[in-house]
Write a structure and sequence with these properties.
The structure holds two protein chains of two kinds.
Chain A lengths: L21 H10 L4 E4 L6 H12 L3 E5 L6 H5 E6 L2 E6 L1 H8 L2 E5 L9 H8 L4 E4 L4 E4 L5 E6 L10 H4 L3 E4 L5 H12 L3 H15 L12 H12 L4 H10 L6 H14 L1
Parallel strand pairs in A: 1-8, 1-9, 2-5, 5-8
Antiparallel strand pairs in A: 3-4, 6-7
Chain B lengths: L5 H17 L5 E3 L6 E3 L2 E3 L21 H17 L11 H22 L1 H9 L11 H13 L8 H10 L13 H17 L39 H4 L16 E9 L4 E13 L16 H12 L3 E7 L4 E2 L1 H13 L8 E6 L5 E7 L15 H18 L3 E9 L5 E7 L7 H8 L9 H14 L6 E7 L11 H17 L2 E7 L5 H8 L4 E3 L6 H8 L1
Helix pairs in contact in B: 1-2, 2-3, 3-4, 3-5, 3-7, 5-6, 6-7, 9-16, 13-14, 14-15
Classes of the chains: A alpha/beta, B alpha/beta.
Chain lengths: ~260, ~550
């Protein structure tokens, strides 16, 4: 009664520009069935890396965005009531364990503490998912790999040691200026010079992390700005929309960013 | 200078953020000066653009001085990034030194504008000198400055054109030809001799680099290396120190209200009713614009407090349309409804709800004279560190929805106990609160029991359910001028703590001087007394407190 993996297959190659040797590291961990922890600031390419690796390894990919209300039942599944009575519905983690998919839990540390009850048995040598509500121990498919992301920024919670020590961690960061400009140019469809100017502005905002801004502009925001420029907006309007107004509402940092915008272009 | 208004501190925070984003070079910014100047890595600007300058009609009329501040701070930052720390002015006349100022100003601006083209346009827009203003030495220098800053400006005077041609390597005006101090000297000497041959007079003491957004260049010439030995303008270094230990006294205090409290006399084991008088005043803000407003809150502290809030005790499970378990009764009702054909209530599950305990904290700061002593191992007084801790904790707690009140207290006998309110429960944490905290002065003694009774009464008066916490910051050693028995006030304070606990107010004490921890723990109990180990360990402290 295994579910059909087709809906979760990655059909086209997601474009990914490696920053270091993270592709080889990821593949090595997957081949040995070791769970992977991706650390890095928001919008630096973690999700894109996972998509790319799922395509490369030919495995289905199931993604769950974790939040404060997410508990174990949201991952493993729950009983539902229908006309025939009660029936069990697998959650995303149970589906992934059954079909041998890559299960990507984005920002796991935000989820409720009871998720450790299901994460721990999956991530050690047991590789089994306990479904307490239906009294079943689901052995994980040989191709199943758990990937978790974590943003170690100032505004985030810390991951407990007992959880993080089960994972092999890859630290990602924003690429260096040239790399990042290439990524922005490719993803947004703009010329290299504009991309470099956008990246320079983005890097200036990153200096303000923890001192006026929670986080500086991510690569994703820079791509957004580039897309707006490609769409015909002036570079100032594009940056204001994608990089200033989306980063902060407080008057002092906003004014400062406007000033830096005026200074940069 | 005037009282630190919210607008000034907002401008200060915005400018500091602006500078930090422009350049990674560390710099501090102070908005209290007559004219812009640089001292070390500290940039000093006036709080507003100086009046009496010819206004440029091209600048935005609705600008409230922000653009001018950006130009001035960015220019100073350009010096910090690109200028050498000092120049050698020996053997140079005042005219040549002045020309070196002009050339160095232009050079660092060109280098900065190559990275940030918008700055180049901004600076160029603030130059207004032209041929109509005359051809005396200072005006020619202003015209030269404009020619160097604005590629679109052309000046007919031969000296200005010569200076521009020699300054740039390229015709577009992007690459300065001066790369070393010696080049600067040579060009300045050459241009200076040209001015001398034109028989133009130059009055050095009254000259200032222009336009007005540029600093006065006092940093270029170290004291003693100039021929006339006079700095360009008198520095006001005293105003540059923020919240030092000798600030001006605050203004007269606002009207107050008095309360009577009992006191515990251990000798007769009885409460003396209406024994003490506590006066509650509002603390006035410190009158100084040079106030250090921290931009970010300590992240470890915030994280520690968030952890405590989120892992609060779990309440009962409530019916919900999602959850892990079925609610058996709801299930039965749903099955019956299905058979009967009635609508089914979708709330079939039981979901745990996190408890919401609205914590209110009253942070009371000991203001006695013993707090004027420096903290062991530091140069700052216990009072100053207490205010820092209070401000940080209040900010972090406020971010999490905890309501905090701050007050300082001191006593001068049993009828003169003062509680100086710096922040009320529903007042947001901000610059006015910090200004009031900075105005707290060490004075008199510590009649701790009365302060605890008053603060816990205030806490109980707050509306709503939830925890109440009273934290005392200081050395926790009760003493007053009209008591001779050292144990009397300690026993009284202990009784006050017990009384507070019985009414539901938890107490804790943060002791800054580790030598006094024993007395404090006699009053508050070992578990509720925490020693302060430094601002870096504030998160561990916060965890113990809550």
């Amino acid at each position: 009664m295994s579910p059909d993996p087709q809906p979760w297959r990655v059909r086209e190659e997601p474009w990914y520009e490696p920053v270091g040797n993270e592709l080889a590291l990821f593949e090595a961990a997957c081949q040995r069935r070791l769970p992977v922890l991706l650390k890095g600031p928001t919008g630096c390419g973690k999700t894109r890396l996972v998509e790319h690796m799922a395509w490369r390894l030919g495995r289905p990919l199931i993604t769950v965005a974790c939040n404060e209300d997410l508990g174990a039942a949201d991952l493993t599944g729950r009983w539902l009531l229908d006309a025939q009575g009660t029936r069990w519905q697998d959650g995303p983690l149970a589906v992934a364990a059954r079909i041998g998919a890559l299960c990507y839990l984005d920002e796991l540390v935000e989820a409720r503490a009871d998720t450790t009850v299901v994460i721990h048995p999956l991530t050690d040598t047991r590789r089994v998912l306990p479904l307490a509500a239906c009294n079943e121990q689901v052995p994980a498919h040989p191709d199943f790999t758990l990937v978790v992301s974590y943003n170690p920024g100032p505004a985030s919670r810390e991951m407990k040691a007992s959880t993080r020590q089960r994972f092999c961690a890859i630290a990602l960061d924003y690429p260096d200026a040239d790399h990042e400009a290439r990524i922005v140019a490719h993803e947004a469809g703009i010329d290299a010079q504009t991309a470099q100017a956008l990246v320079a502005f983005g890097r200036r905002t990153r200096r303000l992390q923890g001192q006026g801004l929670d986080e500086g502009a991510s690569t994703r925001l820079l791509v957004h700005a580039g897309m707006l420029v490609a769409q015909g907006l002036s570079i100032r309007d594009a940056c204001r929309m994608a990089l200033v107004e989306s980063l902060t509402d407080e008057p002092a940092p906003r004014r400062a960013l406007e000033g830096v915008l005026d200074a940069s272009f | 200078m005037g009282v630190a208004e919210p607008a000034t501190s907002l401008r200060l925070v915005a400018l500091r953020t602006y500078l930090r984003a422009l350049s990674p070079v560390p710099a501090t910014l102070v908005l209290e000066a007559e004219c812009p100047y640089i001292a070390g890595s500290s940039i000093h600007l006036p709080a507003a653009r100086p009046r009496g300058v010819k206004a440029d009609t091209e600048t935005a009329p609705i600008d409230d001085g922000w653009v001018w501040h950006c130009a001035a701070s960015a220019h100073a930052m350009a010096h910090l990034a690109y200028s050498p720390p000092v120049f050698d002015g020996r053997g140079l006349g005042p005219l040549v030194r002045a020309l070196m100022c002009v050339l160095e100003d232009a050079r660092v601006e060109v280098l900065m504008a190559n990275r940030l083209p918008g700055l180049g346009r901004l600076w160029a827009s603030l130059h207004t000198a032209s041929a109509e203003d005359g051809a005396d030495a200072p005006t020619l220098m202003l015209r030269l400055a404009r020619a160097l800053a604005d590629p679109a400006y052309t000046d007919a005077h031969a000296w200005v054109r010569k200076g521009r041609a020699l300054f740039f390597d390229d015709e577009h005006g992007r690459v300065p030809s001066l790369t070393q101090a010696a080049d600067l000297r040579r060009l300045a000497t050459r241009l200076g001799s040209d001015l001398g041959q034109m028989r133009l007079r130059f009055n050095a003491p009254s000259w200032r680099p222009g336009p007005d957004y540029r600093d006065d260049a006092r940093w270029m010439w170290p004291a003693g290396a100039t021929d006339d030995g006079e700095p360009v303008s008198a520095p006001s270094e005293g105003a540059a120190n923020s919240t030092s230990d000798n600030p001006p006294p605050p203004a007269a205090e606002a009207p107050s209200t008095r309360y009577r409290y009992p006191e515990w006399d251990a000798r007769i084991a009885c409460l003396r009713e209406d024994w003490c008088t506590v006066t509650e005043l509002t603390q006035p803000a410190l009158e100084s614009a040079a106030f250090e407003a921290p931009i970010g809150v300590d992240t470890g502290l915030r994280r520690a407090l968030q952890r405590r809030r989120r892992t609060g005790p779990r309440a009962d499970r409530v019916p919900s349309h999602r959850g892990e378990r079925f609610d058996p009764q709801a299930l039965v009702r749903a099955a019956v409804a299905m058979r009967v054909g009635a609508p089914i209530d979708p709330r079939l599950f039981l979901e745990p709800q996190p408890a919401r305990n609205a914590l209110k904290v009253f942070l009371v700061i000991d203001q006695s004279v013993s707090c004027a002593q420096p903290l062991p191992g530091s140069s700052r007084s216990v009072m100053a560190v207490s205010c820092d801790i209070a401000a940080q904790l209040a900010q972090a707690w406020q971010d999490m929805g905890v309501q905090v009140a701050l007050a300082g207290f001191s006593s001068d006998g049993r009828h003169a106990i003062s509680l100086r309110a710096c922040k009320d429960f529903d007042e947001p944490m901000g610059a006015p609160v910090r200004a009031r905290l900075a105005g707290l002065r060490p004075q008199h003694s510590t009649r701790l029991g009365a302060a605890i009774r008053h603060a816990s009464t205030r806490l109980k008066q707050q509306r709503g359910q939830g925890e109440r916490l009273l934290v005392v910051l200081g050395d926790g050693e009760p003493w007053d001028i009209d008591i001779h028995d050292p144990d009397y006030l300690v026993a009284d304070a202990r009784q006050a703590v017990g009384q507070a606990r019985s009414t539901g107010v938890r107490t804790a004490c943060v002791v800054l001087d580790p030598n006094t921890i024993e007395t404090a723990s006699r009053v508050f109990g070992w578990r509720a007394t925490v020693a302060f180990k430094g601002l870096e360990a504030l998160d561990a402290l916060a965890r113990r407190l809550v």
